[in-house]
């Protein structure tokens, strides 16, 4: 086939579409500038036309392809199948693949394979049968798909995909391996009929109820026990709806995070909490009461001193026990309701309360800025613990403390900085509170006030920061809290 004949075929392809010269030009430019590749072959699999987009997809310029066999673009292992397929179609008129769109690998000029989606169409020109394929590069989509599958199958959570009727479409490897299941064991089944939820009627009912809520656009979450291949597990189970731009639910995503060990630890913690709250507190109060009576009754100086030490030690243990109890309450209680709290107002109330308790102390609040933060009644505990710590640990007879409010634009927080004149907080007291060092038997804090403050602040989404004053005359502890709005 000479170059003139190739050019005639190319021009004829478009002129056969319409006799209008303007429309011919329009279609030529449309194909020439399309992002999809166009490739036309004849009955002998010779390429008679290729548009410029083919180069971006497969590396060949149109001139490099025209006149060559289509097998140039087909991986060697598939060439015989392509040849047989075209021959069979020309002979019988029956297709062996979906011409409306099929995903196949094409061979790039540099030798690597490119995933493409090809749409095929037969047409004719001057009695010659021609076949045009439209090539769409799927490389980016395939890459995204592989990344999604990597995340989907390598998460520790049980994750799946179900339709709005609750029929399972996909389940990740974590969920399948937990019950020693294959994908075929669950895909196509209602979620509540899958193996995981057959442990109890309650589990089955919960899964079905979750689908009902989620398909109506509601987020569902509950703890349930499910069954695996050789054990059961308590999971934090949820289903969230995926909606379209109109808010209509299209798909549902069930998830399950195993909390079996967490649940067991919580039960142990609740037992310890009851011991702290009742048994230990009652026994300490008895010891403290009898020790006070002994201190008042004993006349021997040595014995009186021993009894006084018992009073002081038991009083300190009662205080620690109360802090531990409050810490346990915060950990176990999920009923705290967040509200918008004015930082300056909450701070001034705490300062007034501490002034009544420590009349010799002076707490000056400098409020160049103010803010509203999402918090609850526990914010008072944070202020009390840090301010009282600054009052009782100074050597000065009249403690003087400065509190500054500073807005941080870097992380959108309000910083409440407490500046004192106390000795440096020992390294052991900072472990786990102002740094990330693990708490060990050799390195740990003896008090729990700062620890309690840290847990509350972190629950608010904030953090604590500690540093010595530049002149080494005291400490600076800053409470960073996320801001709703500046005041």
From TrEMBL:
List the Pfam families hit by this protein, alphabetically: HATPase_c, PAS, PAS_4
Q: Which reaction does it catalyse?
A: ATP + protein L-histidine = ADP + protein N-phospho-L-histidine
- Indicate the segments forming the Histidine kinase domain, all copies: 275-485
Enzyme nomenclature, EC number = 2.7.13.3
Per UniProt, residues of the PAS domain are 23-93
The lineage's top-level taxon is Archaea
User: Which BP terms in the Gene Ontology apply to this protein?
Assistant: regulation of DNA-templated transcription
- Gene Ontology molecular function: phosphorelay sensor kinase activity
List UniProt keywords, sorted A-Z.
Kinase, Phosphoprotein, Transferase
The protein's name is: histidine kinase
């Amino acid at each position: 086939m000479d170059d003139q004949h190739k050019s005639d075929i190319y021009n004829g392809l478009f002129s056969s579409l319409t006799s209008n010269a303007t429309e011919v030009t329009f279609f030529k430019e449309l194909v020439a500038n399309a992002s999809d590749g166009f490739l036309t072959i004849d009955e002998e699999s010779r390429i008679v036309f290729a548009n410029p987009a083919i180069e971006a997809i497969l590396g060949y310029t149109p001139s490099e392809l025209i006149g060559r066999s289509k097998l140039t673009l087909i991986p060697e292992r598939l060439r015989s199948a392509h040849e047989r397929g075209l021959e069979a179609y020309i002979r019988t008129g029956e297709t062996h693949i979906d011409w409306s769109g099929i995903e196949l690998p094409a061979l790039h000029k540099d030798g690597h394979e490119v995933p493409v989606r090809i749409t095929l169409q037969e047409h004719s020109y001057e009695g010659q049968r021609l076949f045009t394929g439209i090539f769409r590069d799927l490389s980016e989509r395939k890459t995204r798909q592989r990344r999604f599958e990597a995340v989907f199958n390598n998460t520790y959570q049980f994750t799946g995909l179900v339709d709005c009727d609750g029929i399972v479409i996909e389940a990740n490897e974590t969920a399948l391996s937990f019950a020693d299941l294959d994908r075929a064991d669950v895909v196509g089944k209602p979620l509540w009929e899958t193996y995981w939820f057959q442990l109890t009627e309650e589990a089955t009912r919960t899964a079905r109820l979750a689908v009902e809520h989620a398909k109506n656009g509601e987020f569902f979450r509950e703890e349930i026990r499910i069954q695996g291949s050789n054990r059961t597990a308590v999971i934090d189970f949820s289903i969230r709806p995926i909606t379209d731009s109109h808010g209509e639910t299209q798909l549902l995503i069930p998830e399950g995070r195993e909390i079996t060990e967490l649940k067991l630890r919580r039960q142990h913690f609740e037992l310890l909490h009851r011991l702290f709250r009742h048994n230990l507190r009652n026994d300490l109060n008895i010891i403290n009461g009898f020790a006070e009576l002994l201190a008042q009754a004993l006349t021997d100086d040595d014995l009186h001193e021993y009894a006084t030490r018992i009073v002081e030690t038991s009083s300190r243990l009662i205080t620690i026990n109360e802090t531990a109890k409050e810490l346990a309450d915060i950990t176990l209680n999920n009923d705290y309701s967040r509200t918008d709290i004015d930082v300056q107002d909450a701070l001034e109330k705490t300062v007034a309360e501490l002034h009544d308790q420590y009349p010799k102390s002076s707490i000056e609040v400098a409020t160049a800025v103010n803010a509203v933060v999402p918090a609850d009644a526990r914010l008072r505990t944070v202020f009390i613990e840090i301010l009282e710590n600054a009052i009782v640990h100074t050597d000065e007879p009249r403690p003087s403390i400065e509190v500054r409010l500073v807005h941080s634009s870097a992380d959108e927080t309000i910083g409440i900085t407490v500046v004192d004149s106390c000795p440096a907080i020992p390294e052991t007291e900072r472990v786990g509170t102002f740094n990330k060092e693990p708490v060990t038997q050799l390195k740990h804090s003896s008090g729990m006030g700062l620890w309690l403050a840290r847990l509350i602040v972190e629950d608010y989404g904030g953090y604590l920061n500690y540093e010595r004053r530049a002149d080494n005359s005291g400490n600076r502890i800053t409470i960073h809290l996320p801001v709703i709005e500046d005041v």
